[in-house]
């Protein structure tokens, strides 16, 4: 088992306007989230957010610290959230075991020293999608199933954005320092997420797209409302969304995505909406 990381510097709106496709993808897209028995972290200077994935196959995978953190253990000054998007798995936190089935979430607070990921079946390994942010306080570790999520249904089939929002690791469900995570499922016939688009200067986000059918793709829109750019994203890939950027996508099929957020506040409704007809 090994752990690696790369760091992405923050980019200004002026800089992004000059980027070509390859530069956009290099700055914001994360193409390889899951690697057998290996955790590959991507760190962004937007709110020092970390994104990664753990997929135990040959044996357990341990959450090791990385040089970037200058910490004795990974969660010395951080909190961690995860959603399982693979087979059944177990997460061991300082000796306490939590079973996570498909689309179940787990929050681990600051100060936990040993985190170990297990798959119940190597043939269908668990895929723990991981998000981590700096934390100033320690809150209890807690599993959250879909039945415990705060559920919101939005959109219509007529506007191609009928979707179910599952708020899993959010302050209306459990206490966190700044990390929030949830999952939005688009209904068959709908392809647009997060529409109308919005920005929020007080928070950044990371989107992770999955359940994208084979042969299909998602076009993710980013940039300032009057200066948008797009990045084509494949199944089980993620993209960084700066606070100044819109974050919305349209797929060639329906799909599911996980959103993770960090920043100034925990107000899910803190959004500056952009009229659809004013996007450029």
* Percentage of residues in helical conformation: under 10%
Write down the CATH class: Mainly Beta
Supply the helix-strand structural class: mainly beta
How many strands appear in the DSSP assignment?
24
pLDDT under 50 segments (min length 5)?
A: none
Which band does the percent of strand residues land in? 35-45%
Given the C-alpha coordinates, what overall shape results?
globular
Mean pLDDT across residues: 97
Major β-sheet annotation: 7 strands, mixed
Secondary-structure element pattern, one letter each = EHHEEEEEEEEEEEEEEEEEEEEEEE
Count helical runs.
2
Distance between the termini: 46 Å
The H-level CATH homologous superfamily, spelled out, is Jelly Rolls
What CATH architecture would you give?
Sandwich
CATH topology description: Jelly Rolls
Order of strands, widest sheet: 1-3-4-11-6-9-12
Provide the gyration radius in Å. Answer: 18 Å
């Amino acid at each position: 088992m090994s752990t690696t990381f790369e760091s992405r510097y923050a980019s200004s709106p002026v800089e992004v306007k000059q980027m070509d496709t390859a530069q956009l993808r290099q700055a914001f897209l994360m193409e390889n989230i899951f690697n057998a028995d290996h955790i590959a972290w991507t760190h962004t200077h937007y709110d020092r957010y970390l994104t990664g994935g753990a997929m135990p196959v040959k044996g357990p995978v341990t959450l090791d610290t990385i040089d970037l953190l200058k910490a004795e253990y990974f969660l010395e000054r951080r909190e961690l959230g995860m959603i399982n998007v693979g087979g059944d798995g177990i997460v061991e936190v300082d000796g306490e075991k939590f079973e996570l089935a498909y689309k179940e979430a787990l929050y681990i607070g600051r100060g936990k020293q040993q985190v170990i990921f297990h798959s119940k079946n190597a043939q269908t390994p668990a895929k723990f999608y991981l998000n981590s942010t700096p934390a100033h306080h320690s809150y209890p570790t807690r599993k959250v199933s879909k039945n415990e999520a705060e559920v919101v249904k939005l959109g219509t089939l007529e506007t191609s954005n009928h979707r179910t929002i599952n708020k899993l690791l959010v302050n209306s469900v459990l206490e966190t320092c700044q990390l929030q995570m949830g999952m939005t499922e688009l209904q068959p016939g709908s392809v647009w997420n997060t529409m109308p688009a919005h920005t929020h200067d007080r928070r950044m986000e990371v989107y992770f797209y999955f359940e994208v059918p084979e042969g299909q793709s998602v076009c993710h829109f980013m940039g300032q409302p009057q200066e948008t750019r797009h990045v084509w994203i494949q199944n089980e890939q993620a993209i960084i969304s700066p606070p100044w950027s819109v974050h919305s996508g349209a797929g060639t099929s329906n799909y599911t995505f996980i959103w993770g957020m960090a920043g100034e506040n925990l107000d899910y409704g803190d959004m500056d909406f952009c009229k659809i007809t004013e996007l450029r």
